User: What shape does this take?
Amino acid sequence: MSKFGRFLALVPICIGALTMSACHSGKPAVREMEAQVHDATLHVRVAGNPDSGNVLIAIHGGPGMSSDYMINLEQLAGPELAVVTYDQRGVGRSTSPPGDASNYSLLKYVEDLESVRQVVGAESVHLLGHSWGGVVALRYVTVHPQRVRSLVLMGSGAPGAEAMRAAQANKAQRVVALQQQGLIPNRPTSVRDILPAYFSDPRFEMPDELQNLYYNGTVEQLTWSAIGDYDFSAEVARLDHLVLVLWGADDPFGRQMAEATVSALSNAAVEFVVLEKCGHFWHECPAQFYSRVRAFLEVVSTTTAAAARHEPTATPTIITDVSATNSGDKETDMNDYLGYFDFGGLDWNAVHERYQPLIAAAQDDETFYELINKMLFELNVSHVAVVPPDDLQQIEPILSAEGSIGMDLRLLDGVAVITAVKPGSPADQAGLRPGFVVQRIGGQTVEQIARETRLIPPLNDRNQRKRITASILERAYGPADTMVSIAYLDERGEAHETAIRRTQRDGRVALADGLPPFFIEFEARRLDDDIGYIRFNAFLPPVNQRFPEALESLRDARGLIIDLRGNHGGFFEVRKALAEQLVQERRLFWSYQRRDSTREVYLEPAENAYAGPLVVLIDVMSISSAEEFSGAMQAIGRAAIVGEQSAGVVVAADWMQLPNGATFMYPIEQTRTADGTVLEGRGVIPDIEVALDRALLLQGRDSQLEAALRYLQSAMQD
Assistant: This one.
């Protein structure tokens, strides 16, 4: 597969993306400078390239601490991202203003941060606020909203003093509890003495930057005295930024403070993530923390500030006269094609002007198409891309590959864990088992694959995890009778490496000229308690024939589970036919919205449709038609959805051939469920959210399937 073929692969019969990578090798360049405010001089440290257009300013906790403990954030920095840390007024290497509380007001801290932004020379920045630094970050965004592209909050204080006081009380209780265990002195003499209270594991071996944590008690007292009974929640409620809220599951301040912050951000696009086995500092859970931050920055880097701030819409155009070395001069009005899309306020003319000289200067096909698609992906809508003439065969490699080893996997807490092994398959014969951790596949480490995986719309963390998972998994597939090497850790953590031969897959289906053949998997069986189980990997023929046949054999089942985890999506006609096997009366199932019209789709019940209780299993790998089916069944109250929130890759799309033989895929209608829910970008949110668990997988147990069974057993008793 070509590099661009991989770039396109693994989409709902759609395409891939090019975005900023926050990961890199080697240490970034570092320089130090000063930011001058009228009553203090602030010490500033810049790692990476501030001219890249991506600048992350990290704001340390306290008040009264310095930025030294944040230096490890510089591993995010590189040619495409600058990481800026600075010491707040009166601490570390910054100077102190006169010792009066009025010089430590919250707005003073905001002015300082604005001075740092100016001295770095960034028009707009990403902010990362930790603890007290999160309060400063939130207040800064309310004062300078146009200067902030995105916001990351780790263990952040709340925008109101009441929640902060409750959190301080929670921390005090944790300190007392550890004092009673002899892990904290009864009379602490330094911040270092009480640090064990800040970790999930109070015996956590702290790195040097925490062992030697700086603290100025006078600055802390002056600051709290100055800000008093503060509350700027009303201003926070008006923010509409992209926000990642990270919270350690065992943070001593208590999750209520995080929930207060998330609640205040009522108009923002917030992703709230709880980091397991983690306290107040990310140093205890670096893999989870950096994985989430990198994925979030990847998303934000492809979302323009104009789109985030809803600037005025302009009529968009795309280049369609494409060639290897120049952009041509034909343009097509995208209003003719994006039948429902209002461009989200994106200033498309500005985007076009930014990309036009880059596209014109492209010296080869690969660069040319990457730029075309990077431009299109700024629309932040799925099912839009230009596919080169020779890459259409690379779409959906997992679905179209002839050879397989019979293994499935998922990313669990950033680790590639085998979740299923087909009995008798090459993977089974090689000794692979659910719960084993894949470290390297096809000669590449999982970390390398993750770094090379580029995000496509919709731009959210779930879609990024889907993309990385699929990029890892696709390497297990390939031509039949070829070998793939896999390095893995077993249940005891012992390392192994094996070479496995891919075998020919069953279920080959040729759907249309120009598309590769796909391999359809379908299984139906009875589980304990007389519960039916049906799983298939795509809504493609012949599933529309096999499903009613299977359902006939399960007609007397007391409950039914339809497993759509990992389902690739497919055809409208197939998902509609399946849904009609499960309803008892004519029902509105979907509406398809265009700019000036709405098309409604009703289900006509099949004869002898199944009427028993129903569960649909989904995860981040359930996309497109799988999301339409599950979301619509949920909306009409026909099924309980169990599993994980899906990625939100849900629009109706069409194809057209461009003059040079390339293919343009574009969305034509926005899908809405019967209750009006738009699934694009949002995904399907399960009624019962359950993640897979490695420890249970090692025991041969599927936590999501078990949750589905429990639900049906309860429903059958009612």
In short: Residues 161-180 form the longest helix (20 residues).
